[in-house]
Structure formats: structure tokens, C-alpha cells
Design goal:
Keywords: Kinase, Transferase. The protein is α/β, with parallel strands linked by helices. It is built from 7 helices and 5 strands. It has a single domain, classed as Rossmann fold (3-Layer(aba) Sandwich). Strands 2-3-1-4-5 form a 5-stranded parallel β-sheet, sandwiched between helices. The radius of gyration is 15 Å and the shape is globular. The protein binds adenosine-5'-triphosphate, (3R,4S,5R)-3,4,5-trihydroxycyclohex-1-ENE-1-carboxylic acid and magnesium ion.
């Protein structure tokens, strides 16, 4: 049942949290595109946005994802919330393996990201309005990009993990 699993979805949907758990269960490496960008640049994501703008960050993100496709080894890849905006990334992610959309409501997102300072798109703005706007812009893209969607609302990480494992078992690579 192993093969690469890619997690996509909005900020706070749990891609990084569940990605780590899933990789441990599948005994394959965990890779986080946001983390790779941070380790390559040596600065945090807000600093990259400050210096290079969102466009600069997106170019770095596309490069990291293109490099991962080349690797070809099974992994669990947690993507950044905006990775699917670039059509090159959408095609690369589907090439890598099974793409799972972690879906959560804005209400649940609000609870999870309210105090987080590490997400530049959510700073200095009315958080709820911003999250709703992003959801309108992006949710259909997550849906189109993914092979499967799992709703995480009201579920603990271990419960989401169990759902994903059941799905992967039912539909082996
Ligand atoms: N199932 C869950 N129930 C409650 N809280 C959760 C759950 N999954 C993750 N969280 C919490 O929500 C926050 C965001 O989770 P996480 O960083 O995994 O999201 P993400 O999808 O990787 O976001 P980003 O796109 O910004 O990287 C963390 O504080 C995490 O502990
Ligand atoms: O939703 C987004 O556009 C982002 C989500 C984060 O994972 C980071 O990739 C960055 O903060 C941008
Ligand atoms: Mg993350």
C-alpha cells in the first residue's frame, strides 16, 4: 500500500500534523514543502514574503516540488496551503502519487490558526473574512487536484489518520 501520498488543503487543515503521523505509520519519509523552503533559505516564511513577496515564495515552492518529483522515492508530502495555485505544481503532485485533500471549515480553521504568527497571508487582516475569501478561491482547486477528499471537521488527528489509512488500504497504489 506504500507509494507517495501528497496532502493538500487549506492552512490549518492538518497537512503537517497528519503528514508526520502518516509517514511514521507507513515507514516512509515525511517531507514538508514549507519546511524545505525554510531550510534552503535559512529564514522563516514571513521573512521570505517580506523580502521576495508572495511571487518569490511561489517560485521557490514550485522549484522544491519539481525537485521532489525527480526523486521518485515514496514519501508523505505535506504541501503549503497555496501550492495548488500553480498549475505546474498540480500536475507534479498528481504525478507523484495519491493526492488527498484535507478539508476543514473556516470555523474550524479559525480555532486552529488564530494565534499563529507564521502565516503571512493571515496577518493584519480580518481573519474570518480572509479565510472565507481564500476558501472561495481555492477549495474547488483542492477538489479538482485531489484523488480523494477527507473532511477533518470535529475529528482528532488520529481519527483523520485512521480514515486515510483505511482509504489507502482500500485503494492500494
Ligand atoms: N485534527 C486536529 N484537531 C485539532 N487541531 C489540529 C488537528 N490537526 C492539526 N491541528 C492543529 O492545527 C494547527 C495547524 O495544523 P498544521 O500545521 O498541521 O496545518 P497545515 O495544514 O500544515 O497548515 P499550513 O498550510 O499553514 O502549513 C496546529 O496547531 C495543529 O496542532
Ligand atoms: O495558504 C498559503 O498560501 C500558504 C500556506 C502555508 O502553508 C505557507 O506555504 C505560506 O504561508 C502560504
Ligand atoms: Mg503545514
Amino acid at each position: 500500500m506504500t507509494g507517495t501520498v501528497v496532502l493538500i488543503g487549506p492552512m490549518g487543515s492538518g497537512k503537517s500534523t497528519i503528514g508526520r503521523l502518516l509517514a511514521a505509520r507507513l515507514h516512509i519519509p515525511y517531507v514538508d514543502s514549507d519546511q524545505l523552503i525554510v531550510s534552503h533559505t535559512g529564514v522563516d516564511i514571513p521573512t521570505i514574503f517580506e523580502i521576495e513577496g508572495e511571487a518569490g515564495f511561489r517560485e521557490r515552492e514550485a522549484k522544491v516540488i519539481a525537485d521532489l518529483v525527480e526523486q521518485g522515492n515514496p514519501m508523505v508530502l505535506a504541501t503549503g496551503g497555496g501550492a495548488v495555485l500553480d498549475p505546474r505544481n498540480r500536475s507534479h503532485l498528481r504525478q507523484m502519487g495519491r493526492v488527498i485533500y484535507l478539508d476543514i471549515s473556516v470555523a474550524e480553521q479559525l480555532k486552529r490558526v488564530r494565534h499563529d504568527r507564521n502565516r503571512p497571508l493571515l496577518q493584519n487582516t480580518d481573519l474570518e473574512t480572509r479565510l472565507e475569501q481564500l476558501a472561495r478561491q481555492r477549495n474547488h482547486i483542492y477538489q479538482q487536484t485531489a484523488h480523494w477528499r477527507v473532511s477533518g471537521d470535529g475529528l482528532r488527528s488520529d481519527q483523520v489518520l485512521r480514515r486515510i489509512l483505511r482509504h489507502l488500504q482500500a485503494y492500494p497504489a
